[in-house]
Design a protein that fits this description.
The chain is mostly helical. The protein contains 18 helices and 6 strands. It has a domain at about 225-300. A two-stranded antiparallel ribbon has the order 1-2. A two-stranded antiparallel ribbon has the order 3-4. The chain has a two-stranded antiparallel sheet with strand order 5-6.
Length: about 350
Amino acid sequence: MSKGKQIAFTLLLMYLALVAINRTTFVNAEPTEEYKGSGYCISCHPDQGGEYSQSAHTNGYSNEDFQEVWADLGSTADCLECHTTGYDKTTETYALAEVQCEACHGPGDTMERDTSPELCGECHTGPFPTYDEWVNSGPSHGTADCMTCHNEHTSKMEFETPDETCGQCHDSHVIQVDDSTHGLNDVGCVDCHMNIEEADFYNGIQAKTGHSFNPKEHELDCSSCHDRPLEKHDVLGEKATACLSCHGDIHELKLELVNRETYDNDEPVALCAQCHNERYTDWSQGTHGAHDNPQAVCTECHDPHIPTINKISTLEPIPTRELDDPAPLLYKIAFVVVLEILAFSVWILRRYNNV
């Protein structure tokens, strides 16, 4: 074979090899558009399959509660978009029951790896507006996404307790709560920050999933746990509004002034002085205390929740002082009278003898 033919033949072989490589790459990268079910995925990904089996996604369609409500609402096809895999709006049919691997990763060998909140938000919205609440949860959660707190396959929290989950980013707050009365009584972040309410599908009322993390959303009511009725101090507001007027440092439950200065609960003078300035002035100049060396603080005499002293109602009752038995007193008087009579008699006798 001539040298020219050898070069041509070599180039042909190289061309055919490149075509074969490109064809193979194209075939492997192209989605099959055929849903094969979780069993197909788990055959190569058993660990992820074990995690997925713990998720509520596994019975997104067969769940009894869903089936009951869905039937009551006329088995509307709209629900199937999130409760099945491979739902086709045009035909109102689905490829697979339940929320299987391919619902998130794409059909067949597509293997999308999108873990953005927007992917979760395709279903976690509407009746269960988790995504919408998260979007409105404020800048503190702007760098966090669903996977920051939840395992992508089990959907469960990444940590054993909610406080540990919150502590990833809010460790200083968790430490403060742990050392407070709340922490010592097992009151955690979610007790105040997550308001969860069930959806009412029959009346078109959305659920609340707690992902706005805003305590004010459900009118946080301290009195639901603390039986502390306010008298006179009810002018500070209602429910938590009144409580936080004084206990403003909500994580450590310390007293907080309007300038954000904090004091322990047994140091109330500066807090009371904000509103009761005249009484503070009298107190600081009187015998009960001085501003630099207090002897008796406000709460030693006043119950901070019912502060009025009306007939000493907030103090221990003054013991009734009983008079002594009157009989001994009469004896004393009679004895003095007798002594005076005797003394007068002696004086008369001496005067008579001298005459």
